[in-house]
Specification:
Strand order of the largest sheet: 14-13-12-11-8-5-4-16-15
Number of strands: 32
CATH class of the largest domain: Alpha Beta
Number of helices: 23
Structural class: alpha/beta
Number of domains: 3
CATH topology of the largest domain: TIM Barrel
CATH superfamily of the largest domain: Glycosidases
CATH architecture of the largest domain: Alpha-Beta Barrel
Distance between the termini: 53 Å
Largest sheet: 9 strands, parallel
Shape: globular
Oligomer: single chain
Length: about 775
């Protein structure tokens, strides 16, 4: 019978899911309670177009080599056929955990071989090592058989794609980072790392020794090999341990690795991240080839906005190379999750990955919205919030009314009453519509989305989505943030637990945490990976300000992309340690020509605080209120050291130039010594570059050519300034302005969401009135 013909096709400016030629806006649902038919029916009533169905074929159906019992899968599909209306289906398959027979057949390829209890998961399963080619090849075979069987079922026309996940929490994270970050490696890592090194160095041991000149193969510590000691070989090379495993941050240069000393660790990171990306691509290829007709394939990957920053840990997990997926014809979508750090009421929300990078390459950014809802908040606390005067409770806290451990940790920043929860639903939906992101509601706590008013709210949002897919959704942002997939490979060893809980001062220097401030500027921005600037379709003419964050490594191909946009009066802002690593050495002078501003450095660690100079320059308007910096010590310390630059701010400790501008006539180069600047300075930067500021009240704003969304972080009168006159329709009430307007004003409570459909008038139409 065959699957529905499904593909990602560009429509009105963004990639859109098309099924048998018809576009879907992509509201999807999945639930930990999908065994309850009422949960499925409620999501259908809420307007979801797609159901994401877990089928653990490798656990429940695979009985041995070439042996299958599809009863489990058949029963599950029959259940959804009965209860899920006319929705389409994405089949979600977990591939890192397999039936126990696989561990017995391949004891060397798993973390919990027979007789051992190692591994995070149930001892009845095989916990597979994700770099194993044996695992990859056998799972590809199982996938081909599974997809081939599905094609023969009566439900095949409802299936539009496969989500192919593996690893810890199914997110293509290796299972054992707690071990690898301590220098303890499963033998498969060592075996495959040596194979990778042979390919990387062309089987030339002298090239390997030159790169690893600081490594003693016996001790794996920072020592020059003695003349009477043989150097490293492809047979003796090991995954990094000792000092090199921990990284240069022990003795300096702290957050960055010096390639002259730490190349072994950078090679390991590159091996791990390339291998996991290639294995995801292999699974997508196997599924698509078995399908024989167009179908969507992808998985979780590339959390470059959440797990990178001044310090990073994406390199330890292994899912950091987005461009490998962007360039693959076998991958149609890449998934992430709505920001854990920005999802609170009044927060900017956000993504863990880079939606605009994916869209540039024609890929779908297909994200998970796993909000806990007010249904998960115990009744006693819902009642306490209803009775209390909460106007003085600041954002990101619920005390003294509700203990933070209940609201934040237990309920994951859920809405605290119906109105607040509805506003969170609205914010997430509008953000995704504006970005061009299909998404799924994940009922992670079970039965969390079933209150009647919730179903009605989601239904209204779905109706808006069905209309919006036909509107012009090209971006209107005039600011782009750019981060680097290469830089984490040269950063010191970290893991999520360390950076998020033990080194809290470093946690705030992750890009996603910085977005808590950037996202309140009222300046929409797009996010890209550094190599995207060289892509022929990169819309650089749209951006008046390009901000480089976590771009210590700028390979030559990416550098050509940067130089391409140093024109037309554009402003390029460099932060912290830009272009200071060339893959061979750490030297700020190596990037002077590219940055257009000369940097100096001190190889030491300190609090980096940027203090504005007194004066009337538009960039420093606001004075000392713009000052910002780190909560803990960071190193190395970089600063502008350019006599041709205008100094706008200095380091509090040391006095060197921490904020500087150099005008090259056709473009401007700016430098900030740290990247966690606040919303007011962001607005100054945008205005200086000529970018439009939509709102200056420190609230959350998203916009494209047809939609504007305002989510309030505080109560008061709010003004949204449109970039041109437009007729404006309130998406909640349906009220449409009688004529084109330039400003929208609302009197708003805190933590509410407003949304409008905008129809822009000709450029010469006068701006009149307010909506």
């Amino acid at each position: 019978m065959g699957f529905a013909s499904t593909s990602a096709q560009r429509l009105n400016g963004v990639p859109v899911i098309h099924v048998d030629g018809q576009p879907l806006h992509g509201m999807t649902a999945t639930s930990c309670a999908f065994g309850d038919p009422q949960v499925v029916r409620d999501f259908v009533a809420a307007g979801c177009e797609i159901m994401m169905i877990w089928i653990e074929a490798g656990i429940h159906c695979w009985r041995g080599p070439g042996q299958y019992d599809w009863t489990y899968a058949e029963e599950k599909l029959r259940f959804f056929a009965e209860h899920s209306g006319d929705t389409k289906w994405i089949i979600r398959v977990r591939l890192g955990l397999l039936a126990r027979w696989w561990a017995e057949a391949h004891p060397d390829e798993v973390h919990n071989p027979p007789g051992e209890e190692a591994g995070k998961s149930d001892a009845r399963l095989a916990v597979c090592n994700l770099v194993s080619p044996v695992w990859r090849d056998e799972v590809c075979g199982m996938l081909r058989d599974f997809v081939g069987w599905l094609k023969t079922t009566p439900w095949a026309p409802r299936i539009i794609g496969f989500m192919l996940n593996a690893g810890s929490t199914e997110e293509w994270l290796i299972f054992d980072t707690a071990e690898t970050t301590r220098g303890r490696y499963h033998p498969v890592y060592t075996r495959e790392f040596r194979n990778w090194l042979r390919r990387e160095y062309g089987d030339d041991v002298e090239r390997l020794r030159a790169a690893w000149s600081g490594v003693d193969p016996g001790k794996n510590v920072l020592e020059k090999p003695r003349p009477d000691t043989p150097g490293v070989t492809f047979e003796t090379a090991t995954c990094p341990g000792g000092h090199i495993r921990k990284g240069s941050h022990i003795w300096g240069p702290y957050s960055l690795r010096d390639p002259r000393e730490d190349q072994a660790a950078s090679d390991y990171y590159r091996f791990l991240n390339e291998t996991l990306a290639d294995h995801l691509i292999a699974f997508c290829r196997a599924a698509k080839e078995a399908a024989g007709t167009p179908i969507l394939c992808g998985g979780f990957h590339s959390y470059l906005w959440w797990e990178t920053g001044v310090y990073s840990y994406i390199q330890e997990y292994g899912h950091g190379l987005i461009q490998r997926l962007n360039q693959s014809p076998w991958v149609d979508f890449v998934s992430d999750i709505t920001s854990y750090d920005g999802r609170y009421a009044g927060g900017p929300s956000g993504y863990l990955g880079l939606p605009h990078s994916l869209n540039l390459h024609g890929k779908l950014h297909y994200t998970e919205v796993d909000l806990c809802t007010v249904s998960s908040l115990p009744a006693v606390w819902r009642e306490a919030w209803r009775r209390a005067d909460t106007t003085a409770v600041p954002a990101r806290t619920s005390e003294p009314v509700i203990p933070n451990r209940v609201w934040n940790w237990n309920c994951n920043y859920c809405g605290r009453d119906e109105a607040e929860q509805a506003a969170l639903f609205q914010r997430e939906h509008l953000h995704n519509l504006i970005t061009g992101t299909p998404y799924w509601w994940f009922d992670i706590r079970s039965h969390n989305y079933q209150e009647p008013w919730m179903i009605e709210t989601l239904r209204q949002l779905s109706d808006i989505g069905r209309q919006a897919v036909h509107w012009d959704r090209r971006p209107l942002a005039e600011v782009a943030f750019v981060c680097s997939e290469d830089t984490p490979m040269y950063q010191a060893a970290m893991n999520g637990e360390l950076i998020r809980f033990e080194l809290e001062s470093c946690h705030t220097l992750l890009l996603d945490l910085c977005t808590r401030r950037w996202g309140l500027a009222g300046v929409p921005f797009d996010t890209y990976e550094l190599h995207d600037l060289a892509h022929p379709g990169f819309p650089g003419d749209q951006y008046k300000l390009i901000i480089f964050v976590n771009c210590a490594v700028v390979p030559e191909g990416a550098a050509a992309g940067v130089r391409r946009w140093q024109k037309d009066g554009r402003a390029l802002l460099w932060t912290f340690a830009p272009a200071v690593l060339d893959g061979h050495r750490l030297d700020p002078a190596a990037g002077d020509a590219l940055r257009g501003i000369r940097l100096g450095w001190r190889n030491q660690r300190q609090n980096i605080h940027v203090c504005m100079q007194r004066g009337r320059h538009p960039l420093t308007r606001g004075g000392a209120a713009l000052n910002y910096g780190t909560e803990g010590s960071v190193g190395p310390v970089f600063f502008a050291d350019d006599p041709a630059a205008t100094v706008l701010g200095r380091l509090r400790d040391g006095g060197e130039a921490a904020f500087a501008l150099r005008d090259h006539g056709t473009w401007k180069s700016l430098y900030l010594a740290m990247l966690n600047f606040g919303p007011e300075l962001f607005r100054n930067l945008a205005r200086f570059a000529g970018a439009h500021v939509w709102c200056d009240s420190d609230d959350v704003l998203y916009a494209n050519r047809s939609l504007v969304c305002l989510h309030t972080a505080s109560a008061g009168c709010k003004t949204v300034c449109l970039p041109a006159p437009a007729r404006v329709t309130d998406l909640w009430s349906g009220k449409r302005s009688a004529r084109p307007v330039r400003r929208i004003r609302v009197d708003a409570a805190a933590y509410r969401t407003f949304a409008w459909h905008t129809e822009y008038a000709p450029a010469d139409a006068p701006a009149k009135g307010e909506a």
